[in-house]
Amino acid sequence: YVTMVKLRPPLTTQQQIAIAIVPKFTSALSVLGSGFIIVHVLINPNRRQRVYHRILLGMGLMDVVVSVRSFLSTWPLPKGTAWGAMGTTQTCALAGFFGQGSSLAGPLYNGSLTLYYFLTIRDRKRWREEKIRAVEPWLHAVPLVVGWSTAIAGMVLKLFN
Predict the structure, then answer these.
(1) Is the bond preceding 23 in cis, omega lying within 30 degrees of 0?
(2) Helix 51-72 crosses helix 129-156 at what angle (to 10 degrees)?
(3) Residue 52: how many CB atoms within 10 A of its CB?
(4) What is the pLDDT at residue 39?
């Protein structure tokens, strides 16, 4: 997932530890927040019926994946390459795959939400829930296909090591 770059001067042990540990706190908070959004949508049948909430659900799911990847921090990296690294080349590639797919799909889902707002706020009479449902598959397909196809391409091309 991470290409080790020779830094001048090299990072101190304390800096390496900070880089490995700090993401655990921020990503844990992100998982909690996104988890709340996911549960908020899933427990209410009325919310599950609305395009807006389904887009939020997709965003939340992608954020959980990228946040779990961030929480893992240096753990998946091959042992000996960074402080806290205890993985293998395969775990590093897997972390890269999930990091790539979700970290691209998440912002693209944000774009879907923005488009949803643009259409429904700009012209409320024309873009009611029924009409927005007709374009909803695209609001999910673009983030998922673009995000995860780049992850698949990266895996096939062995870009994550």
Answers:
(1) no
(2) 20
(3) 16
(4) 98
